[in-house]
Amino acid sequence: MQGTAGKVKAKDKSKPSSSLFWASACFTAIFSIWGVVNPESLTTTLYGWTSKFNNDFNWFVILMPLLILALCVYLAFSKYGNVKLGGKDTTPEFSTFSWMAMLFTAGIGVGLVNFGVAEPLTHFMQSPLGLAGGFSQSEAAQNALKLTLFNWGLPAWAIYTIAGLVIGYFTYTRGAKFLPGTPIEQGFKDKKWSKPIAYLANLMGASAAALTMAASVGLGVFQVKNGLQSVFGLNLEGITPLLIILGILFIVYTLAAILPVQKGMKFLGDVNIIIAISILVFVFFAGRTDFYMGTILTTLKSTFTDIIPISFENFALLDKAWFNDWPITTLMWWVSWTPFIGIFIARISKGRTIKQIVTASILVPTIFLVVWFSVFGGHGLLDAIAGNAEIANYMINNPDDVYLSFIMVLQQFPLFTVTGLLFIVLIVVFLSTSATSAVISLSMITSDGAEDAPQYRTIIWSIIIVCIASANLIAGSFSGVKAVAIVLSIPYLFIFILCMSGFIRQLRKDHGGAR
Asked: What is residue 121's predicted lDDT score, i.e. its pLDDT?
């Protein structure tokens, strides 16, 4: 397949253009300042638009991941499955373990801890398939894990995987640029509208990446604070400790970003997955192993058998509050991450076939997440049903600080000093891997798609993200920034569909099929 690279002009080695950088930086700054000065106005305005979209198109959003998953399966097991990113003679740059560790930690990030206990308990109490819907406690618990894995399992990884495949094919197999809009510009090069739409995709992709990552980093600061207070009994009230934590995170992810991927991101990814597995194994054997094992098997079954029923359920006759706030918002959040996650997945997947990428990057993370949520989320559900419901009651009384629920699970086991310390390290590294992948992708996007973007641009985006996060920490609200990211995902959803269409169109041209 090396010959197809000649169909695209060789990458320009001259100094990268700064137009996209300044456009995306200004766009990001406008909404960031609005979010700091008047977060309530920004949130109200943008969530109004989001609510309109959710109410009109939630049926499509809930069905979309199933269609993308079907596309991924088709690509993997069709004649295209053996197509290798970079050509048949290209070899992978990273070991399978390091590749999976980087892909997993960049794609899921701190949300694995933030929502590991909180989300199953929320669905258990509030969803139409939970206690609020009149189900028994045991039924509500099973449904809660089923709904959680729908949000985090196959649908999420199908979205990420196709994003990586689309970018990777055009960049490594056809020699195009690392840009979110490349599949549109190259896949529809015979259309006059392809270039302006591609530029719009690049602009929205960069802006969404900066804002979503700033929100994730800022929210993660509170998790680190909770961990430090719980493990060491420190008094970290006020803004100063939060800014110090943010500064430490900034140093870690900036250093990882400016180092070669083989050193910085690879090291963080390996450390992260080892710590996560260590905490998981400890809780699995220190707690109700029989209950966890049964929950894992039940959840594993429902993850694969219930994806079709859930994809066709939009609770048409019920109140849409929970439905729009959880499945729909979560799926759109994944879409808002695709511009930089797709580029990062492509960057680390050179030399692997479409079949390898689809099977590994969808199945392995999904199975790990089944185990993770079944153990930690399952423990929270067990505490709510057969324990003193301490965690569930805390979440009810503190709806804005549900992130403490994960630490509360660890506190119910021995050796909390050790597991709590590991928890803090895990949060820091999770945040750093996600932020590192974001700033690497951002610097590539705003350096005209250069694979090895200038370090100074990586540092600039690193500073921009920490400035947005610190401004919102001082303002005391990330709702505005999160609202912008979610709103940007709405038009980007349709751009994402265009990217997939351009990919299929080009794939059929290159390997036979209708033109």
From this structure: 97
Question: What is the domain range of residue 146?
Answer: 24-506
Answer whether 417's CB lies under 8 Å from 233's CB. no
The candidate with the shortest Cα–Cα distance to 166, out of 37, 16, 36, 358, is 358
**CA 75 to CA 173: how far, in whole Å?**
16
Whether 4 maps to a domain, the answer reads no
Instruction: Look up residue 437 and give its two tokens.
Output: 């992948």
DSSP annotation string for 375-411: IIIHHHHHHHHHS--HHHHHHHH-TT-GGGHHHHHHH
* Residue 149 near residue 306, CB atoms below 8 Å: no
Structure tokens at 452: 């090895």
The strand pairing partners of 353, in sequence order, are 84
Q: Is residue 112 part of a domain?
A: yes
Q: In this structure, is residue 10 part of a structural domain?
A: no
Retrieve residue 360's tokens: 């590994």
pLDDT score recorded for residue 335? 92
DSSP code of residue 373 = I
List, in order, residues 6 or more apart from 240 with CB less than 8 Å away: none
Total domains in the fold of the chain: 1
Q: CA torsion angle for 50, 54, 56, 61 (degrees, to 10)?
A: 130
Angle between helix 154-168 and 329-348 (nearest 10):
40
Q: Is residue 502 part of a domain?
A: yes
pLDDT at residue 14 in the model: 44
State the DSSP string of 251-315: HHHHHHHHS-TTTHHHHHHHHHHHHHHHHHHHHHHHS-HHHHHHHHHHHHHHHHHSHHHHHT---
pLDDT at position 34: 84
Instruction: Return averaged pLDDT per consecutive 10 residues of the chain, 515 residues in all.
Output: 44 58 89 81 83 91 96 96 91 88 74 91 96 96 97 95 95 92 94 94 89 84 87 88 93 90 80 92 97 97 96 89 91 89 89 94 93 97 96 91 89 94 90 87 90 88 91 77 82 94 94 60
219-239: b (≥16 Cβ within 10 Å) or e: bbbbbbbbbbbbbeeeeeeee
Burial 250-259 (b: 16+ CB within 10 A, else e): bebbbebbbb
Contact (Cβ atoms closer than 8 angstroms) between residue 196 and residue 462: no
Residues found in the chain: 515
Report residue 228 as tokens: 């430090």
What is the tens place of the pLDDT at every residue in 393-427? Answer: 999 998 877 888 999 999 999 999 999 999 999 98
CA distance 346 to 339: 11
d(CA 336, CA 25): 17
Residue 457, domain CATH:
1.20.1740
Q: Which of 107, 68, 180 shows the shortest CA–CA distance to 361? A: 107
Residue whose pair of structure tokens reads 């992130």 in the numeric block: 403
* pLDDT value at residue 392: 96
